[in-house]
Amino acid sequence: MTQITDILDHNKAFVENKEYETFISGKFPEKKVVVLTCMDTRLTELLPRAMNLRNGDAKILKTAGAVISSPFGSIMRSILVALYELQAEEVIVVGHHECGMASLNAEHIMGKMRERGVSDEVLATLDHSGVQLGQWFKGVENETQGVMHSVNMIVNHPLMPAGVPVHGMLIDPKTGALEVICDGYERNGDAAK
Fold it and tell me: For the purposes of burial, counting CB atoms within 10 Å of the CB of 126, is it exposed (0-12), middle (13-18) or buried (19 or more)?
């Protein structure tokens, strides 16, 4: 049996038993927040529970390391859409301890690409066309630096609305304990929130 077969079998029972009813919500985030976090599997259920987020409370975006690699890529576009069109009023970037992005090695990944059939010619063509795979697959120095990179990219984005609090946090992937590394209220000079 394949993963897709398992998923579809489960889905049929899920719909027939109306298990979806507990997840019904609107398209606008109730808590008016957009969360950018890592795609780490340990955070799939842990992060929302640790942050007291239920279905419909937040827009949750995931990317490797919670790192925004391009100021005009899909992650930044999604944040801006959430702020301008979907009633989000704050952004929280949540990285985590023991993140694979802190030890990511571009040469190692490209070696695995070669092992799986990507030719040196393709890699060289991409590099010569300006893609610079070594930079694109580069990891971060540490988890805090990765979060602050994303926070700063959001705060300094030319299309960012003024005064939006952008927070940075780290979560422990074992316990769910959250640590604030950048308080967006303080950064905006509004400690009263």
Answer: middle
Query: For residues 169 and 180, what is the distance between their CA atoms, to the nearest angstrom?
Result: 4
- pLDDT tens digit at each of 193 positions of the chain: 799 999 999 999 999 999 999 999 999 999 999 999 999 999 999 999 999 999 999 999 999 999 998 899 999 999 999 999 999 999 999 999 999 888 888 889 999 999 999 999 998 898 888 888 888 888 888 999 999 999 999 999 999 999 999 999 999 999 999 999 999 999 888 655 5
Q: Which fold has domain 29-99+141-186?
A: Beta-carbonic Anhydrase; Chain A (3.40.1050)
What's the alpha-carbon Rg for the chain, to the nearest Å? 19
Within the chain, residue ranges assigned H as helices are 3-16, 43-50, 74-85, 106-115, 120-128, 133-136, 143-155, 184-187
Asked whether the beta carbons of 67 and 100 are under 8 A apart, the reply is no
